[in-house]
Amino acid sequence: MNRTTVGRLLAGPSVVVTFLLLVLPVVAGAIDTAFMTPLALPGYLVLTVGSAVGNLLFPNFALWVYWVPFAVACYGLAVVVGVGYRARR
Fold first, then answer.
1. What is the pLDDT, as a whole number, of residue 77?
2. Which residue of 3, 32, 39, 78 is surrounded by the most CB atoms within 10 Å?
3. Is the whole-model pTM more than 0.70?
């Protein structure tokens, strides 16, 4: 694998678009509830599962602490989707 391929797998257009589709609707819904849409369902699912697991492991943390793991999990899912897209292509 050359450097360009690794760069495209980790930060290619498909990864960026998938990450934004997972994160932006959730962030918009968190800022103002009028922006909550069904498009945010996959991101809300990731946030809910991550918050539930985080609350079991670290029950004293506030829920806002789980935004960083949410972003990391969304990036991981975006990389998986990007790799799948590149493999299919």
1. 94
2. 78
3. yes
Tokens (6 digits) for 89: 């292509």
What pLDDT does 52 receive? Answer: 85
Tens digit of pLDDT for each residue in 5-58?
Answer: 777 778 889 999 999 999 999 999 989 888 888 888 999 999 888 888 888 888
What is the amino acid identity at position 35? F
| Nearest CA-CA partner of 78 in 8, 1, 3, 5 | 8
Q: How far is residue 20's CA from residue 39's CA, in Å, rounded to a whole number?
A: 11
Task: Please tell me the number of Cα atoms within 13 Å of 42 on its side-chain side.
Answer: 14
Distances from the Cα of 16 to the Cα of 7, 10, 19, 39, 53, angstroms: 12, 9, 5, 16, 26
Half-sphere exposure of 81 (CA within 13 A, CB side): 18
Distance CA 75, CA 59 (A): 25
